């Protein structure tokens, strides 16, 4: 099963949500899923054991938008959508986990 998981950040970020996202991703992988984690706190690609970590930090106009009060929440759905759709074209996802990310999840589903 191909799983994509969206998260704002991953450890060493010190938040409960980043820790929960990492634990959910590892649990899915231990159950046999191929998990790709999309995170806004970095760019580039990395691995955390069996997890594939895909940074989707906004660049250019989206990065500027993200730093603008109130409008910043528009940048995350757009950044996630672009990164997830690019990966989906390479290897289709069966499941997208978007815990606490309703807007990006909805943007990807659209």
Provide a descriptive summary of the structure in words.
45% of the residues lie in helices and 25% in strands. By secondary structure, it is of the alpha/beta class. It has a single domain, classed as 3-Layer(aba) Sandwich (Rossmann fold), CATH 3.40.50. It has a five-stranded mixed sheet. Helix 2 packs across helix 3 (72-90) and helix 3 (72-90) crosses helix 4 (102-109). The longest helix has 19 residues, at 72-90. The two termini are 21 Å apart.
Overview in brief:
The protein is an alpha/beta fold. The protein has a single domain, classed as Glycogen Phosphorylase B (Rossmann fold). It is built from 4 helices and 5 strands; from the N terminus they run βαβββααβα.
Strand content: 15-25%
Structural class: alpha/beta
Beginning-to-end CA distance, first to last residue: 21 Å
Q: At the fourth CATH level, what is the homologous superfamily?
A: Glycogen Phosphorylase B
* Major beta-sheet overview: 5 strands, mixed
Written as H for each helix and E for each strand, in order along the chain, the element string is EHEEEHHEH
Supply the CATH class: Alpha Beta
Major sheet strand order: 3-4-2-1-5
Report the strand count.
5
What gross morphology would you assign? globular
- What is the CATH topology? Rossmann fold
Mean pLDDT: 85
* CATH architecture title: 3-Layer(aba) Sandwich
Computed over alpha carbons, the radius of gyration is 13 Å
Helical percentage: 40-55%
Discrete helix count? 4
The poorly predicted ranges are none
């Amino acid at each position: 099963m191909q799983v994509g998981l969206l998260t704002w950040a991953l450890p060493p970020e010190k938040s409960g949500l980043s820790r929960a996202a990492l634990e959910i991703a590892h649990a899915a992988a231990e159950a046999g899923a191929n998990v790709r984690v999309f995170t806004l706190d970095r760019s580039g690609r990395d691995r955390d054991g069996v997890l594939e970590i895909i940074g989707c930090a906004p660049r250019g106009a989206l990065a500027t938008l993200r730093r603008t009060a109130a409008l910043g929440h528009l940048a995350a759905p757009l950044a996630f959508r672009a990164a997830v759709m690019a990966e989906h074209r390479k290897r289709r996802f069966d499941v997208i986990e978007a815990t606490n990310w309703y807007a990006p999840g909805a943007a990807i589903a659209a």
